[in-house]
Write a structure and sequence with these properties.
490 residues, seven-stranded mixed β-sheet, five-stranded parallel β-sheet, 19% strand
């Protein structure tokens, strides 16, 4: 029987849930507090002719994203053009630059040139990572995770040891490689999972396979093309979208969610799915007696980083800069320690630069560049304009050194910063986190915040703070899981 379903938030998980539930014939209304679709994957355009993706910029695991479109009889190419990046990205070290080629064969040659025998070791690593990817992304992450019994199956039992859940990622990488540059290259992807490599299960070598082996891509027009396409899918199924619509409260009667307050107006629904920040939903939209978790629960959790972002329009072309550039002149372990242990602004930060105008001329005016600078920082630390500017000067100084431009600051046509306070304001993000909960072993699967409200049967959660975890493909999967769970509610 058709149900009336409210979805709070239009990020990847909300868009995914809306699409699947509307396809089943439900009446689906999506409420977004901001003025456009996408959540953290929003875009904005400036009067100077620049268009910026505000959040995700790495298009990895293309098969997972493609499977979403396939579920609706469509292909990503129906909506946008995918371009393989070559090199996939470059890494800047204190003593030189390493370009990561799109060709896997060329990648093995690169590894061999850096460390004798590393080309063969890369093959061994990727064979193992492929097994983890095929089990992890096809079976493991698709569970609602109400109980460990969900993971008891002949296939999972047969491959349990291959998942390496009890080996940490840092140890796992060092089984194959010893050169510091190769170790940093292989450990880099798990930064997206929100924890230090030593605290993440070796299972997540699947990230290396999903990125390096399956390639790094770019959707022409920017990442917002993906969320626009997902919204179009949802609308085609019959979902309705309401922007500038702030959900202020979830009303409960007899242990059942009956309505939500949107901009002061009550709207009734049979089922509610919160794609909004989990902590915000529980602590601001629900009365205390209906919350799954107490404040102390969240305080004990390990959160992924926040980040300091600068969106820059440069009125000049920038030589010697690729689409993706990682500035790893400093120590990765020190930076992650200051994020997760010391919880302070970094003393010797790493950072990332994205220059989509190298691939996509639509993102900047002619003979100009669109540059996005991102530095991971600890969530919950004090955010001030003075601190932002301090690190802006450091990042641009290192960018100048790498590119050979000595007067970059004088060429800035547009500048906007975004950090902890903005994540709190725009997304109600707990402590201003950018990526959700870290995928540590103690926060994996059943040990993540429950996708169901345990006291209200028709209230569900989805997104990066519940299963399966942070990242674009996992968030899309999370929405599908939430939709499946909603379909079981009588």
């Amino acid at each position: 029987m058709s149900k009336k379903i409210a979805i709070i938030g239009s990020g990847f998980s909300g868009l995914s849930a809306a699409s699947y539930l509307a396809k089943e014939g439900n009446e689906v209304d999506v409420f977004e507090k901001n003025n456009e679709v996408g959540g953290r994957a929003r875009k904005f355009c400036t009067g100077e002719g620049y268009t910026f993706d505000m959040g995700p910029s790495w298009y990895w695991m293309p098969d997972i994203i493609e499977s979403f479109f396939g579920d609706f009889g469509r292909k990503s190419s129906d909506f946008y053009e995918l371009i393989p990046l070559d090199p996939q990205f470059e890494m800047v070290f204190s003593d030189g630059v390493m370009n990561i080629p799109d060709s896997y064969e060329e990648m093995t040659v690169l590894f061999e040139s850096i460390e004798k025998g590393a080309g063969k070791k890369l093959d061994d690593f990727m064979k193992d990572a492929q097994i983890k990817y095929e089990i992890g992304m096809k079976d493991f992450v698709n569970k609602p995770c109400h109980s460990w019994f969900e993971f008891i199956s002949p296939k999972m039992a047969k491959n349990a040891l291959k998942l390496d859940l009890l080996t940490n990622f840092s140890q796992f990488v060092r089984k194959y490689f010893s050169h510091p540059k190769l170790i940093m290259l292989m450990e880099f992807p798990v930064i997206f999972l929100g924890a230090a490599p030593k605290n993440i299960p070796a299972l997540y070598s699947l990230m290396n396979y999903g990125g390096y082996k399956l390639g790094t891509w770019y959707p022409m027009g920017g990442f917002s093309k993906v969320t626009d396409a997902m919204m179009q899918i949802a609308v085609e199924q019959g979902a309705n979208f309401y922007f500038n619509s702030n959900v202020e409260k979830i009303n409960i009667e007899n242990s059942e969610a009956v309505s939500i307050m949107v901009n002061g107006e009550e709207k009734q629904f049979d089922i509610i799915i919160a794609s909004s920040d989990y902590h915000h939903t529980e602590n601001q939209l629900l009365s205390e007696e209906y919350r799954n978790y107490k404040p102390s629960y969240w305080e004990k959790k390990t959160f992924a980083p926040s980040c300091l972002i600068y969106y820059l329009g440069i009125k000049s072309k920038i030589p010697n800069l690729k689409h993706h550039t990682l500035f790893f002149e400093n120590d990765l372990e020190l930076h992650t320690h200051e994020i997760y242990e010391d919880k302070k602004w970094p003393t010797k930060p790493l950072f990332y630069a994205c220059c989509p105008s190298k691939t996509d001329k639509s993102t900047a005016p002619e003979n100009c560049e669109n540059v996005f600078l991102l530095m991971p920082v600890a969530p919950g630390i004090e955010d001030s304009e003075e601190m932002r500017e301090k690190y802006f000067n450091e990042m641009t100084g290192r960018l100048e050194k790498h590119t050979g431009i000595s007067d970059l600051l004088s060429k800035i046509d547009y500048k906007r910063s975004y950090c902890i306070n903005d994540f709190k304001e725009d997304y109600n993000a707990y402590k201003g986190n950018a990526y959700g909960l870290a995928n540590t072993l103690s926060q994996t699967a059943v040990l993540k915040p429950s996708i169901r409200n345990k006291k209200i049967k028709n209230l569900l959660y989805t997104g990066q703070l519940t299963v399966p975890g942070p990242g674009v493909p996992p968030s899309i999967i999370s929405g599908k899981i939430a939709a499946s769970e909603a379909s079981k509610i009588n």
